[in-house]
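Hey,

Quick one before I head out. I ran the complex with DP6 overnight. Inputs first:
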Amino acid sequence: MTEKDFIPQYLDTSNLQKGKFTWKTPSNIALVKYWGKKEHQIPENTSISFTLDSCHTITTLEFVKKKNENSKFEIYFEGKKKDSFKPKIEIFFDRIKRYCSFVSKFDFVIKSENSFPHSSGIASSASGMSAMALCVMSIEKELNPKITDDYFYKKASFLARLGSGSACRSVKGEIVVWGMHDEIGESSDLYGVEFSDAVHPNFKNYQDTILLVDKGEKQVSSTLGHDLMHGHPFAKNRFQQAEENISKMKAIFKSGSLKDFVNLVESEALTLHAMMMTSNPYFILMKSNTLKIINKIWEYRATTNSNVCFTLDAGANVHLLFPISEKEIIAKFVDMELKQYCQNNHYICDNVGKGAQLTSIDKL
Ligand code: DP6
């Protein structure tokens, strides 16, 4: 599908006065990372992620037909008015208006909450923006009930991408690919698609324990980070490597090789951070406890048969990935050896989930 396919014909709003929709949308963790984008939120390389289950956002979008031309919206986060979130939402509304012109006919109240603590250093833009996109699509479906599920979810992912790139991977499916790739059927730079090739049972119900090393605000916004890939001395090679890594990941999912999975995922995480360290300005987002955890994981693997590995996003927290067969033993390892490196011993146990869910519809 092309960008133009997401511009609907005129939708009549005269029969829709007000209502509200609630979506529960997941966070995701990238295995092959998105780092670097072109204009209009187009990624420089293909990325692939596991959808998470426990780390999610619940967002209600209330809409009322506008009384005058001024646009109005309010945001509440965990019960409190949150004007500091407004600029990001304003940008989102502005970017989607070409595709959802009906939004200009309504005033909105957005009420959102996360399952994970806001000050956990876990990025909430993926789940937050996918929730917004799905709520907007629920309004579109009200106005045009004929749209197919396929169009609904593709366009939701397309809109989510305009809010935050990685959010387009937080709509549908356990494993999601974003970015055009020759070996991934239907893949697109415009939206995420469910990975539909073979997945070995080793990867069913994969586990992710998030070790909260640093709960502070992000030191570098992702948008600034992506910008640093423009003119980066290693950018071209990195983007090419990511495409090759997608092919490798596809083969790993098929074969079930956990050893190869561990190797690829850790290499991707360290490459992401290497890009930050070698950009200008440069950043080190790992903390000393991040490194202590990584070394503990390597030591543990060297002395056991474990297939536990780590990945990182643009911060100091460590995602510990492992097959469900190691759930009990890794819980002990975390408790005995790793939680001491987490802020207030805090960590979150998660696993791969299926994607977003519409939890309530209220047409008033
Ligand atoms: C390191 O999706 O947060 O988590 O498109 O500017 O909102 P924007 O960036 P964002 O970047 C996420 C980067 C990452 C890797 C990944 O999730 O693929």
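The first strand starts at residue 18 and ends at 32.

Talk tomorrow,
K.
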